[in-house]
């Protein structure tokens, strides 16, 4: 089986077209310009949505883009990846009487304008003599970096990968978020004088203690790590993929390596959906998702699920892998699964899946993609000697300060254990809030003391 | 189905919808197409001395994405020779004997000029004449159009000259570019006009281009005022029609013009005194075919109201239009917000808070928030109901009256009486 480069390019091109100018203009005029609008409250970054929409309506595109990106430095990415149905659009007052304003699409229209017209929307502040090191150049780290630069800090971002942007650059499939968008946002931060050191792994190329010594404050925004092992035989076989790595591969360069393959994805979160739809677009012949619970418990957003179905992905509910079977060359040839049933757990907890004895069956497969969650950078957290719960860094909820008063944390490193949502937009807000807390600690409060003396 | 026929000062028409004298009635081809589409009458674009037009000449005012809320032009009267027009008028009337064919005229304020054109036009068999004393641009600078129409004595005198020669009904078309429309309406009536039509276009400048700083429209980089029309001018026109209708000194039939876009507008004009209506901008926006919806809507409306003849509508709302001094000062309404249909956009709240009487409260009640009007502080201004995007979510309710109905005039009269007693 062969899939041409052209076909690959087509398959990975952004699925959703942007609004055409007239569409955007009409949609913007539909906005009621609510006072104290619920959409603003529903946005984790608190974008003044009616205001940016009004600016589109009266053809002030610069003002519109600035309104969005002021509140959300990753506003162009978020326009594409936010679960708007659950956030801004879900809160729109027109939901019952008409249909909600296409806030995400309008946000994309405005930010795309800024990208296309090469606008530099913000400037760095006058240097305040303080420096901050940020570990991780993802949404949380970049958001903190931009705000800190505007407050006048000298900011250095340490990024392990070749490009900053984190999840936006590497973790979200191109057909939903093209890499160029994320990299434009990175560039906006860099242009504020932020030193972004890529290909630099904290803990290897530079140690935690070096960072703590050479900077006034460190922001830990390292995100999450690989998909964990499933703990079943055969995970070492050729043809077993980590979903995160697979998506990342497609963001670096497209290949048809799954062309003609039969793919089984294990897990039913948004990453599983991404891995499945990526596989389809890489030319896989048949793609199915196995999930040990049922559709009700699936963590993927409804629109993601619908998208996968429209891409031809099949779903097998209440199915758990038992072992991966290899051929004589050490390559995946099948996966053995067992059917599950759900047992009611004590109140408040999700129903517990248990195997049905003797229900094992085999699915022929050439590739198995693990998408059962992500591990954490525990060793990095330990290097900073921060308090944590199973890798989730403990923070003060107001200030994002960790157990080390000179270390703040934001993004996926603080997600989990009942703390926050794993959304780009939440990570961005945390970065913003951490930056403000740092500004308050090092400049505002310190300044007050100076004035008093 | 109701009878849609009208009789305007003796001019019969199968329905009240006429095309106003304007670009859509420039040729026989156009007027015949209009009659085929269902228009009941047409006022042929103004005949007069051949003139030269400018390019460009139209502009529109779009509002919040809605196109052609207002329309503006600097076009002048017919650009075709009189004999060509007369030939086409003759042919059109012959083909459509039952439709109203009125011809608009404009000449210099000279008696023999008027006599001459009236005779020529009536000779081809028209149903009536409309004197254009309204055109605000171009012609006015040569002593015609609104230059005449702004001077009641000139209106009266020229109307009289026309009536000396005319055998068909004469309608005088009034300019709104005047302080008191009834002054010229009365002058037309004194000049023995059979009817008046109003309004002609309003002096306007449609816009300025933000990039080139040219006026919109412009002619080689320069612009001048044009005539404004379209939906935006309807309230102005309706008021002028109503003022004429309720003035006993005018006392002649009215043909209503000004932003009429659908059957509802037409009904409003008729209720306020028009015997029929003339339409232009809506046709320029959508073509002749919109008359189908106008006729159908009007007919269904009349049937639903049990009204047999459309002519029965004329003037029915006029008695309700009066001077401020006759309004009941003791009548009061207050806003009431229906929380079940309110969508919580808070537009009423901020409108009242910032720009009215601060009488809407936002109440938080166990997580849910809702809005409530403090009726004792509400002055019944309607603003909240106006800005509310949900039909019926804010209702203006009558408040129990605090006293017997009393208007300013009655109050003054009562006070005068008291003073007399005291004296």
TrEMBL record, chain A:
Domain Dihydroprymidine dehydrogenase: 10-118
Pfam families xref list: Fer4_20, Pyr_redox_2
Domain of life the protein comes from: Bacteria
Alphabetized InterPro entries for the sequence: DPD_II, FAD/NAD-bd_sf, FAD/NAD-binding_dom, Helical_ferredxn
GO molecular function: iron-sulfur cluster binding; oxidoreductase activity
Membrane-crossing segments per the record: none
Signal peptide interval: none
Domain named FAD/NAD(P)-binding: residues: 131-431
Protein name per UniProt: NAD(P)-dependent oxidoreductase
Organism expressing this protein natively: Paenibacillus albus
From TrEMBL, chain B:
Enzyme class: oxidoreductase
Cofactor(s) needed for function: FMN
Biological pathway: Pyrimidine metabolism; UMP biosynthesis via de novo pathway
Location of the 4Fe-4S ferredoxin-type domain: 333-362, 369-399
Keywords for this protein: Flavoprotein, FMN, Iron, Iron-sulfur, Metal-binding, Oxidoreductase
GO cellular component: cytoplasm
GO molecular function: dihydroorotate dehydrogenase (fumarate) activity; dihydropyrimidine dehydrogenase (NAD+) activity; iron-sulfur cluster binding; metal ion binding
Annotated EC: 1.3.1.1, 1.3.98.1
Reactions this protein catalyses: (S)-dihydroorotate + fumarate = orotate + succinate; 5,6-dihydrouracil + NAD(+) = uracil + NADH + H(+); 5,6-dihydrothymine + NAD(+) = thymine + NADH + H(+)
A Pfam family matched in the record: DHO_dh
PANTHER family linked to this entry: DIHYDROPYRIMIDINE DEHYDROGENASE [NADP(+)]
Quaternary structure note: Homodimer.
Entry's family note: Belongs to the dihydropyrimidine dehydrogenase family. Belongs to the dihydroorotate dehydrogenase family. Type 1 subfamily.
Biological role: Involved in pyrimidine base degradation. Catalyzes physiologically the reduction of uracil to 5,6-dihydrouracil (DHU) by using NADH as a specific cosubstrate. It also catalyzes the reverse reaction and the reduction of thymine to 5,6-dihydrothymine (DHT).
Protein name: Dihydrothymine dehydrogenase
Originating organism: Paenibacillus albus
